[in-house]
Write a structure and sequence with these properties.
- This protein is an alpha/beta fold.
- The protein has a single domain, classed as Rossmann fold (3-Layer(aba) Sandwich), CATH 3.40.50.720.
- Helix content is 39%, strand content 13%.
- The protein is built from nine helices and seven strands.
- A seven-stranded parallel β-sheet has the order 3-2-1-4-5-6-7, with helices on both faces.
- Strand 4, helix 4 and strand 5 form a beta-alpha-beta unit.
- Helix 1 runs parallel beside helix 2 and helix 4 runs parallel beside helix 6.
- The protein starts with 22 loop residues before the first strand and ends in a 9-residue tail after the last helix.
- It binds hexanoyl-coenzyme A (HXC) and NADP nicotinamide-adenine-dinucleotide phosphate.
Length: 291
C-alpha cells in the first residue's frame, strides 16, 4: 500500500489569497521543483520573480505562473555573480516591490566518483549551491534589515547534507554547508524579523531533469516507486505546499529548521546491508588510472 497519494494538483493547503500583494523570488524557478514551488506561491496570490541563466527556462516559468493568473517577472541572473544578484533584486523591487520571500532553489549537480572530479568541477557546484545561496540570502537580508521589513528565506537542500552522498561529494558538501548556514542566518536575522528555513526534497522525478541526473543509476527505473518505503516517489505539488507553509505566517515561530519531505526514504536501513558496490562500479566506470 505505502503512503497515500496527496490531494489533487491544484488543491490549496493555505487559504486562497494567502500571498496576495506579496512578491516572491525563486532562483531556478523556471524548471522542475523550483517551478512547482513558484506556481504554488502564484496560485496563492503572489507575484513571482524567476532568476536563472537560461532564457528558455525563465520563459517556461513565466508561462506556468501566468497560467494560474499571477504576475511573473523573469530576470537573467547567474547566482555565482553578486553584482548580477544585486541588479536582479533592483529589478524585482522596482517592478514588484521588496520581495517578502526568497526561495534559494537553483543548484548545479552531476554524479561523479570523487577521484574523477576536477578542481573546476568541484568549484562549479560549490559555487552555485553554497556561494550562490549565500550571495542571494545576503542580498535579501541586507535589504530587509535596511527597510525594517520582515521576510522569509527558504533554502532547498538534499538529505545527503546529513549522511554524505557517494557519487556527489561536491553537492553533498555544499548542501551540508547550506543546512548549517540556514541555522546561523536564522539566529542572526531573527531580531530583524527574517526567518530562514530549509526544505529538503527526497526523490522527486520531473520532466526537466538534466541528462546527468537522469543518468544516475536506478533513476527512472520501473521499480523506482517500489524502491522507497512510501512505495512511491514525491509529487512536486507536495513541495509547493511545504514551501508555502514555511513562508506563511502560520510558520511564524519556525526558523532555523530544515524540513525533509521524502516519505522517510533517507532514514531507511536494512537489518543487514546488501553487498557493497563501489561508486565506480555502480556508474559502470573503468578502474581509476592517473592521467
Ligand atoms: C564530471 C563534469 C560534469 C560531469 C560538468 N563537469 N559536468 N565533470 N562529470 N557530468 C565539469 C566540467 O568538465 C568543468 O570542469 C566543470 O564541471 C564546469 O563545467 P561547465 O559545463 O563549464 O559549467 P557550467 O556551464 O557552469 O554548468 C554547471 C553544471 C551544469 C553544474 C556543470 O550541469 C548545470 O548548469 N547544471 C544546472 C542544472 C543542474 O545541475 N540541475 C541538477 C540539480 S538536481 P573542467 O575541469 O573540465 O573545466 C539535484 C538533485 C540532487 O541537485 C539529488 C540527486 C540524486
Ligand atoms: P533542475 O530542474 O535542474 O533546476 C535547477 C535550476 O537551477 C534550473 O532552473 C537552473 O536554471 C538553475 N540554475 C543552475 N545554476 C544556476 C546559476 N548559476 N544561476 C542561476 N540559476 C541557476 O533541478 P531540480 O531537480 O528542480 O532541483 C531543484 C532543487 O531541488 C535543487 O536545489 C536540488 O538540489 C534540489 N533537489 C532535487 C531533487 C530531485 O529529486 N529533483 C532531490 C533533492 C534535492 P538555468 O539553467 O536557467 O540557470
Amino acid at each position: 500500500m505505502g503512503l497515500p497519494e496527496p490531494p489533487a494538483l491544484g488543491s490549496m493547503a493555505l487559504a486562497a489569497g494567502a500571498f496576495d500583494g506579496q512578491a516572491v523570488v525563486v532562483t531556478g524557478g523556471g524548471t522542475g521543483l523550483g517551478r512547482a514551488i513558484a506556481v504554488e506561491f502564484a496560485r496563492l496570490g503572489a507575484s513571482v520573480a524567476i532568476l536563472s541563466r537560461g532564457e528558455e527556462h525563465r520563459a517556461a516559468g513565466v508561462t506556468a505562473i501566468e497560467a494560474v493568473g499571477a504576475r511573473a517577472l523573469a530576470v537573467a541572473c547567474d547566482i555565482r555573480q553578486p553584482d548580477q544578484i544585486a541588479a536582479a533584486f533592483d529589478a524585482v523591487e522596482s517592478e514588484l516591490g521588496l520581495p517578502t520571500t526568497l526561495v534559494n532553489n537553483a543548484a548545479g549537480n552531476f554524479p561523479v566518483p570523487a577521484e574523477d572530479l576536477s578542481p573546476n568541477g568541484w568549484r562549479t557546484v560549490v559555487d552555485i549551491v553554497l556561494n550562490g545561496t549565500f550571495f542571494c540570502s545576503r542580498e535579501f537580508g541586507r535589504r530587509h534589515i535596511a527597510a525594517g521589513a520582515p521576510g522569509s528565506i527558504l533554502n532547498i537542500g538534499a538529505s545527503y547534507a546529513w549522511t554524505g552522498g557517494p557519487g556527489f561529494a561536491h553537492s553533498a558538501a555544499a548542501k551540508a554547508g547550506v543546512k548549517n548556514m540556514t541555522e546561523t542566518l536564522a539566529v542572526e536575522w531573527a531580531p530583524y524579523g527574517v526567518r530562514v528555513n530549509g526544505l529538503v526534497p527526497g526523490l522527486f522525478p520531473h520532466e526537466d531533469e538534466t541528462a546527468d541526473i537522469r543518468g544516475v543509476p536506478g533513476r527512472g527505473a520501473e521499480d523506482e516507486e517500489a524502491s522507497c518505503p512510501a512505495m512511491r516517489t514525491g509529487r512536486t505539488r507536495e513541495l509547493g505546499w511545504a514551501a508555502t507553509f514555511l513562508a506563511s505566517p502560520f510558520a511564524s515561530f519556525i526558523s532555523g529548521e530544515t524540513l525533509v519531505v521524502d516519505g522517510v526514504n533517507w532514514q531507511r536501513r536494512a537489518m543487514r546491508q546488501p553487498a557493497f558496490v563501489p561508486i565506480r562500479d555502480q556508474m559502470g566506470k573503468e578502474p581509476f588510472q592517473l592521467d
